[in-house]
Request: fold
Amino acid sequence: MQADAESGTGTQAADTTGGAAGGTGPQSRTADIVPGPGGVMTDEVGVVTGDLTLRTEWADGRVTLRVQYKDADEWYVVTGGTAALADPAGLDAVHGIALGLLNRPEG
Reply:
C-alpha cells in the first residue's frame, strides 16, 4: 500500500463508527481508489468506473464492500463483496486486501 500512497492514489482514511477499533459496534474504513479498465461491478448499477471511494463495513459479524463515485451520495455494494467476518479486528486486513485488488490507477 505504500506505493499507492506515493502515487497519490489509494489514500486510506480510517473511519471507525460505533466505538473504538476492535469494538463490537458497526465499523468502517474508507479510501479513494481508481479501478482498472474494467471498473468495479456492483449489484445495483453494474460497472462503475473513474474516481471512486471504497468503504469496507463491518456489522453483525459480516463485512461488506461498497463503492461510490467520489464525493457522491449513493453507495453501491461490490458484487461478491459480502462475507462473514466474526471478529471486527480483521476489518483492516480485509480493507487492505480490497484496496490491493480494486485500486489499479495504472491500469
The two ends are 16 Å apart (CA to CA). Strands lie at 12-15, 27-33, 40-42, 46-48, 52-59, 62-69, 76-84. The chain is about 15% helix and 40% strand.
